[in-house]
Design brief:
This protein has 676 residues and is α/β, with parallel strands linked by helices. The chain contains 15 helices and 30 strands. It has an eight-stranded parallel beta barrel. A six-stranded antiparallel β-sheet has the order 23-24-25-30-27-28. 50% of the residues are buried.
Length: 676
């Protein structure tokens, strides 16, 4: 029987002739047949042109392993691989005993290789054998494969695109009609592999999405979140990377079941009125030698300059964002997850790494203007968002961008990056520094709470307390709080309420809502046993109650990105560490008054300005007994005084419990008088 090397050598001598006779030559001696007389899934000259010019945004329909039928009506699978500098390409797999394989031929000067097999069947395993220009051979993972074996194995699985029957038409239609900027957005961030772990003694390390659907969706519904955001779900070899070092961009990780399992999960989320967002990593990829790394023996997916290709900080490789074919690969990938899995948004990881030349550690070179902006990276990001919003204007495109780069959420046509949301990393860093501080010193650092007021409407922000803040020795959210256990939970309730009242959409990482003491561990499930303790159980009930208030009051989300949505009453009371403000909706009478006490000292007779005469009532007190606090009854109704205060025509008096937030609602109010 001929070996793969024999076949590659034989194919090389015949390649030019094969191409000249319109790729109809069939090699059948000791190996599988090679043919491109395809009627289904054929790659046209227009397709190759678009791919090579960075404009083929559905390349997943043609590249990789595709079900096909040849001109003789025989069913099989076509294989297409982009490897412009390879000398020879073959597909080897268990359908040919991993010895002889499908010899691919090159389509002109496109850098794309293709072949067809009737022997490859659904469920078979395969790899790509790449011979570089120096004759070195390596087995590689298929960049476009839809499925892989469970790690540590790494073979791709021959599979058809699932023909899933979606039932979420009502959700999709509603999404198109909704003004997402004026709608509630309260995201529950999840690592699918550690939210819960199988505890029934079986061998499986992870729940599949078919199993998670019966647990996670009811939980998110009960807690009142509007969306689930998953940390990356694509195939990756190392659990400790949390999915951020990817080897299979088009494959759901085998840890979590099949692509169809995930589609069914999303469909069920939509039926439950829950949106689904996924983290996506276009800036860098896993440098393992069996995957994208130096795929054809040269810097193919990565930058040509080694210092620019190497991501020192993360031990990864950076995509060459100046290369047209990389654009086709990555933008197609974003649209693949959006189109095929009905995702409601992508959170784009490490945007700063793409748009700056000096973001990573180590050597870098300035651009032609002497600056540190990666112009190719900026152009790619703008192109990505342009193409996504051209097709899906109702999509969430969220930037995890950690600098003050201007215009991240401005449209591309006015010079912005084109995202519609950005994580507010500045707010997160300031507020956590403040809350981790001994309350005795908070009055001297009150600007950490109020500084965000200077810029909170410059971008469309999401306030995120994410996974990054509860790992690597940073402690859990509860453990960050100073004091004894009671005061830790009081601080945590105050932090969470302030987040929910502050302008901007919301995100909380799993475990934050239960007051978990230990920081997150990717290899273990959350500490669900903590909920047997009163303070944890009461805190979870508090978060559930706060989530319900958020989605139930337009003042908290309608004008998140408009200065009309917030009136600051008193941001200068450093000595008492009290902050007061009003959140407003689009209608004048849709408003809530918020008072925050950031130290464990009760304050009597705190006067707060209000815009209407009448009666006000407590909507939420974070120190309520039901939440784990000490207040067993609500404060009495508050009648306005004619004494104006904080620039408002009327005022009320309240008691501010120690370390607390009061949310106050208008109950019976009269006409409106302009503030003075």
């Amino acid at each position: 029987m001929l070996t793969v090397s024999d076949l590659l050598h034989k194919w090389t001598r015949q390649n030019d002739f094969c191409f000249e006779i319109e790729r109809k030559q069939i090699i059948q001696k000791g190996c599988d047949e090679v043919s491109n007389k395809l009627q289904i899934g054929n790659m046209s000259e227009a397709d190759t042109y678009l791919f090579n010019t960075g404009s083929h945004f559905q390349s997943y329909q043609l590249m990789g392993c595709q079900f096909a039928v040849d001109a003789d009506g025989k069913e099989g699978f076509s294989f297409r691989v982009w490897a412009p500098n390879a000398q020879k390409i073959a597909i080897v797999g268990d359908f040919c005993d991993w010895d002889t394989g499908i010899i691919l031929h090159k389509i002109g000067n496109t850098g794309i290789w293709e072949g067809f097999s009737t022997k490859a069947k659904q469920g078979n395993h395969y790899k790509i054998l790449v011979e570089d220009s120096n004759g070195n051979q390596k087995l590689k993972m298929d960049p476009y494969a839809l499925a892989f074996e469970l790690r540590p194995k790494d073979a791709a699985v021959v599979t058809k695109m699932p023909d899933f029957k979606w039932t979420d038409g009502r959700w999709m239609a509603k999404r198109k009609r909704k003004n997402l900027y004026q709608a509630p957005l309260n995201i529950y961030e999840v690592h699918a592999g550690s939210w819960r772990k199988p505890q029934d003694g079986r061998d499986a390390e992870f729940y599949t999405f078919a199993e998670l659907a019966d647990m996670l969706i009811p939980y998110v519904m009960e807690m009142g979140y509007t969306h689930i955001e998953f940390m990356p779900l694509m195939e990756h070899p190392l659990d400790a990377s949390w999915g951020y070092q990817i080897t299979g961009y088009y494959a759901l990780s085998a840890r979590y079941g099949s692509l169809e399992d995930f589609m069914s999960f999303v469909d069920a989320c939509h039926a439950a009125n829950i949106g689904v967002i996924m983290d996506w990593v276009p800036g860098h990829f896993c440098r393992n030698d069996n995957a994208l790394s130096y795929f054809d023996g040269t810097p193919q997916f990565e930058y040509w300059k080694t210092f620019q290709a190497d991501n020192v900080r993360w031990g990864a490789l950076n995509f060459d964002l100046s290369k047209a074919e990389v654009h086709s690969f990555l933008i197609s990938n974003a649209l693949f997850w959006i189109e095929m899995c009905h995702l409601d948004g992508l959170r784009v990881d490490a945007v700063s790494n793409m748009i700056y030349l000096d973001y990573d550690d180590g050597y870098w070179e300035a651009n032609e203007d002497g600056g540190n902006v990666n112009k190719a990276g900026v152009a790619f990001v703008q192109k990505l968002n342009t193409e996504v919003f051209k097709r899906y204007p109702d999509m969430l495109m969220i930037a995890e961008e950690s600098t003050a780069y201007p215009g991240v959420t401005l449209p591309v046509d006015v010079g912005g990056l084109g995202f519609n949301y950005k994580w507010n990393m500045g707010w997160m860093n300031d507020i956590l520094e403040f809350f981790e501080m001994d309350p005795l010193f908070r009055k001297d650092h009150f600007n950490l709470v109020t500084f965000s007021f200077m810029y909170m409407f410059k971008e469309n922000y999401i306030l995120a307390l994410s996974h990054d803040e509860v790992v690597h020795g940073k402690k859990s959210m509860m453990h960050k709080m100073p004091g004894d256990r009671y005061n830790q939970f009081a601080g945590l309730r105050t932090l969470e309420a302030f987040l929910m009242m502050h302008p901007g959409k919301k995100l909380n990482f799993m475990g934050n809502e239960t007051g978990q003491f230990l920081e997150w561990k990717f290899a273990e499930e959350l500490e669900w046993a903590d909920l047997k303790q009163d303070l944890n159980h009461q805190y979870q009930f508090f978060v559930k109650s706060l989530n319900a208030i958020y989605v139930g009051h337009r003042a908290l989300f309608e004008l998140d990105h408009d200065s009309a949505g917030m009136a600051i009453l008193d941001a200068d009371n450093r000595d008492e560490s009290i902050l007061t403000f009003i959140r407003r909706g689009t209608k004048p009478r849709d408003f809530l008054v918020v008072a925050c006490n950031f130290v464990p000292v009760e304050r009597q007779r705190v006067r707060i300005g209000v815009p209407y005469e009448g009666v006000y009532a407590e909507l939420l007190n974070t120190e309520s007994f039901d939440f784990g606090g000490t207040w067993k009854t609500a404060q009495a109704e508050m009648r306005t005084s004619e004494a104006g205060h904080n620039g408002q025509p009327y005022s009320i008096e309240v008691i501010m419990p120690a370390t607390s937030v009061l949310i106050i609602k208008p109950k019976r109010i009269k006409g409106y008088k302009k503030g003075r």
